[in-house]
């Protein structure tokens, strides 16, 4: 009898393969970073072939670590960096260009053209999204318009588009071309009500329907794996932030989580209702289980949080490892008046300002690298506060608690400051790899490895709770100064 579920968590900077047992505990894990390609300012690319080769390597590695064979694995769940766009040859499987990453800003001009006249919210009614470089459709259009013969090949039905989930499933199964509503809802092409590609949007964007994957639910058998996992059902597919919501068992109306990874993403379960935001949040699909009614969410997306720490390491050489950031931040008593606004890709929610660029403000001769480290951590908490404030206004009442996950939650200094600046309780689960766990849960439900949502709720457990300790007035003063710093980043790019 199968004893495990395998989750493939393909993120912005690395890929993880994790095996979970019936108790939702990690049995084995393997991880590897992949190359970040930045050929021009504002351009961010990945090598999709590298991502697939890395995934295959990790699959073999995690099987070797666990000692399990394919028949002992009940199903495979996929979770992925969303919006990142791949177009490949449907026969050879070779991408026609590097994957264009969600952070990429080369489509700014096209987004301005689409927004002209009717504004940035032109497609919000259908998609729940503003027009922004963040989403997939402008990236698809850029490839079709800028790469030799790409458009004519697409029209001849020679090419396929997919976000990273579709790319992995296609390669895993030997040619099944699907996605799920959580990923499709991030393309700027899917209608939230019908959960299908919108013909009007396809026409406006000049994107042939034939290149798009079939939209299936987040939890069903799409096909069976080839290679080292031959015969194992591929049965779960969730965009990474929705997977984290699912892994945190945020199944009830009003449940919220925040994931701290390359970026920072807060999602609030709104149940079967499609809730619009008037304060810069996104309306997105949270998940759909089989033939059940889809569940929706409000989302606040921040582009740069964990990647700011990597920038301090890789670009400035301020630290040698990410783990050094917390002790360096604790070497000073406060931020020394230094604030960092990491608008490397403009500002996402709630601002949606592509003209913003990163800034470090409040510098004096007193400032040292400890203040930079603290300011970098605090930038994550302040950006989360902006999202929480917007969410509170949209839903009409404050949150009392926030579940947290992702790589940065091991940083206790950050988590305590997060609770302080939000003024709400922050809860860290025992299994912090909730993105991968959510993918495992969705796949496991599809094949009967787990019975229902109540069983999943029983598997979730608290590791640590952070209560607000800072004087609320002091927290508000810090946040107010942060807001002044944000203003300094605007209107930088003409």
Commentary on this structure:
The longest helix is centred in the C-terminal third of the chain and has 27 residues, at 369-395. Helix 12 packs across helix 13 (412-422). A hairpin with a 4-residue loop joins strand 10 (190-191) and strand 11 (196-197). A seven-stranded mixed beta sheet has the order 17-18-16-15-21-22-23. It has helices at residues 48-66, 108-115, 124-127, 136-146, 150-155, 164-173, 181-184, 199-205, 240-247, 306-314, 325-329, 369-395, 412-422, 434-447, 453-459, 472-488, and strands at 4-10, 14-20, 26-33, 45-46, 73-80, 85-89, 99-100, 159-163, 178-179, 190-191, 196-197, 214-215, 219-224, 233-239, 256-260, 264-271, 282-287, 295-302, 339-341, 359-361, 401-405, 425-429, 462-466. The chain has 494 residues and is α+β, with helices and mostly antiparallel strands. Helix content is 34%, strand content 23%.
